[in-house]
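New to this. Help decode both lines:
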Amino acid sequence: MKNKHRFNYEWNLKDAKFTKDKGKVFSCFACGGGSTMGYKLAGFDVLGCNEIDPKMYAAYMENHKPKYSYLEPIQTFKLRKDIPEELYHLDILDGSPPCSSFSMAGNREKDWGKEKVFREGQAEQILDTLFFDFIDLAKELQPKVVVAENVAGMMMGTAKEYVKKVYQSFLDAGYQLRIEPYLLDASDMGVPQKRKRVFFIALRNDIAEPFMEQVDMFQTAPKLDLHFNEEKITFGEYRCKDGIDDTETERGKLMEFRIKSDKCCSDINERVHNKFSGFNAMIRHDEEVCGTITSGETDRRFYDGKICTDKDLLKTGSYPLDYNFLNTNNSKSIVKYFIGMSVPPVMTAQIATKIYEQWLSKIY
């Protein structure tokens, strides 16, 4: 019997009831619409999106059919003079600026200030400036609430100085928020995945006063309780009975030597062949909550040594089982790529619900 959760991690778009009565949202860096689906599950009306990747954009259009959509860099979108009047009356402006410059798995400081090309080959961008472009857009549109998501690596080492600049930029744009953003784990919210993310959640100055509280002796900020009482969901509760068999491949044969303590294929390689290869080929154990799904190497199941199925990954990411990926490339990992690039919909739904209950509903 499955645990009861506020939002179901196993769901279909065709069966979802989106009430659209909680407020209006616009999504930047929308990817395939992970955040968009979360806001919809929480009852918001998502008016549209801004996205730079043509393939992600095509899938977004197919699955969400937004009223407004912009396939262009945020640097040009924020300067538009033809933005519809409706987008100047948003309840929430949402965005997840690309974050590899702050990921603990990347080059971090070595990549700051450098132009980078995405896997899909679209225009080069300096990733660590995109956050400020997003805040520029917030300053222009002046939504009631701004929600910006990024990797947990922003809270570590020298990246903390970057966080201070983001905080000051929000203040300059006319918003109140905590100096230290919220560090949240999707597995605490009814998502079957340990995915830690940082959230900046800002409230517009003219409506913030009733919600302000003394955070510490140095700052006041809008009060927002983001504690969740959801039971953890282990991989064994929902994975498919059978995985994808690849026993004839090098990695498939390697899994024959797996033991309980192995977390990735490199653990087996090191023990059996004295090789250091397969650090990102994660092994998912039935009794554990699945770790963060990335857009990289194939995930495997300890249960049968086989590759995780698309259905395994969709549930782990709380993505709808009937999402249309449009065969957006020829890679076998397209589902994994979308999941790895997206905020889990249920994670966004939980946060959006808290924002509505504690702030927006009281404003209205």
